[in-house]
Amino acid sequence: MAAARRRRLRLATTATLVLALLVLLPSAGALPLSPGEDSTDAELTLTSITPVVEDDGSATVQGRLTNTGSSTLAPTEVDLVPRAASTKRSDIATWAEGESPIEGVALDSAELDEIAPGESETFTLATQATELSPELVAGAAWVSIQTADTAVHTFIGVHRTKEYEPLDVVWGVPLLLPNDRRLFGAPSSGRTSAWEEAVGEDSRLDRLTAEAPDSDEVWLLDPTLVSLPPEPPEATEEELATAMDSERSVRRERSTAIRDRLVGERTLVLPESDADVAAGADSEAAGDLIRPRLRGGRTRAGNLGARAHVLWPTDGLVTDQRAADLERLHAGPEQPTLLTQSSSLVPGGFTPTGGARTTGGTPLLVSDTTLSSVVGDLSSPADLPLARQRLVAETSAILQERPGTPRTLFVVPDRGSRPSPEAYAGLREATSEIPWLAKGSTTNLFQQPAQASADQVPRSADKITESPTGQSAPPPFLTGGRAAAIGEDERSVATFASVRSDGTTWRRTVDPGLDQLTSARWRSTPFAAVRLHDTLSRAVTLTRDDLVVSSGDVNFFADTGRLQITIVNNTDVELANLTVDLASDNPSFRIEDHPDPVTIGPGGRQTVTVQATALAAGQAPVRVLVTTPRGEELTHPATLRVRMRPTGAAIYWVIGGTAALLLAAGTWRTVRRPRKQTVNEDEA
Predict the structure, then answer these.
(1) Residue-wise pLDDT tens digits, 113-127
(2) I need a surface site. Which of 270, 441, 475, 532 has the fewest CB within 10 A?
């Protein structure tokens, strides 16, 4: 018994010590993972890669391994392992997105010490060009930078001899406003802040326009960026006037900077408000709104000495029907050129050049879909090393298609993307580091569609969606129904402005907001556009409660007299030149004159008097309508129910009654006289 108790005591003591040790271990430091233990808490990042190595040179890869877990990483080996390159361009993206280590002989290795949680260790790997894809004359070697558990797949360019015509590359730089509804709401300090964020100092647009476009760069300019809002009216309250002045100052500074750095032949001016031309081609109501935006863009381009012949459909579709619809919509002095992505064309075995034509004869600027997506994914300069190597691989694959044929590549980030300006600039500069690439010419690019063979076959929308590289664009915000509603709001603006004392200034404030509802930017955020539209619609429409006309029962106890109508202005602005129209539905009640135009102050009321005549007793409905000087209705018709009792009616009753009495008396006397004579004769 005692021995058993001693054994149980020793076991309990041992268990207690083990438990205490487990509790104390975290405070003493994390245990390192064993070399063979799997870890998903190690992040491998490449910070620098030699873009292209010549035949007698060496390539260097630098990076870091970061411990993102809570346990110390054991000493780790990082290897550079090559693999055979694929001849298919479509395989490049698949390889670049992979994160699994591969089998193979490492060309170089780096041994890293233990890495504490949250810490990093850097490494450098090097290899000779002779060890990288010896079969390549000019192209990309595929390599995996890897540990036992994770990998980064990338490429190293190899250049041994020049047996090709370099590819010209032209880069598109979209200068577009963000889809922020605050930019176009009612003037306020919040709207001013939104403009400061969008175009102010150190904004994304500030960094994109810090320098003029180079000879291989094209600006795609939303003309809103070079327009200014109106100055605040004199009667504007101080706080609001300050906000409007601040916004005007911020926008003027950006407009001036763009104008100073703009190069006309390297600038494509988009329709006003960056209007959604694809929606305009698909809907007659939307087309009515887009057409003036196209004319405005051409006018702005003429003032800037820039180009406005290129239309950029958001959805990227270039069918023959779409081309015909856009050409009718454009209605300009020259045939429009459509900017599309290569994925919207049926593959013909070769990547299409930047300037092309469809089989139907439509001029095209063709943006390379894959490279445009690579640019769109540049969220920060840290993404540049791998993106540059993708550029090496993608362009080397294109080069191999027709190495002896001069061609141009056009790269334009997707509309919905917002690449880092610094990273994108770095990628454009990388052209000089890749021997088979040359700086293209925007002038040559714009001339190519007219000279190209009509051999590009457009895809259908379904085929684009099914394509591995195809993208399905969001549906348009500017549907036919919504376009009709915006058109109605535009008419309401004209109506309301015609009677506002500040109509001219007010219209210059609200019209641009309605124009911006036609923009392609709202496809990605339709809810923001709906809210903006609701706000603007309420601001431009006089409601039933804004301008009220008195109605009800009115007594009119006279042959001729005055009829009074009261009109109430519940808005916060003076309304002038209001025309009051009255019409009687009973011919026995006549309106003898029309009142002069009426002016009513904010929150005020006005009584209007007219002369009227009642021809008979009874009831007469009188409809009252307030209109603009041009006859547009401002209110819903009100009805006065007039009870008529002319003062002359009593006389008619008296005359009639007297006549009746006289007639009755005469009849009575006539009847009575013969009877009296008969009685007298009988008595005699």
Answers:
(1) 999 999 999 999 999
(2) 475
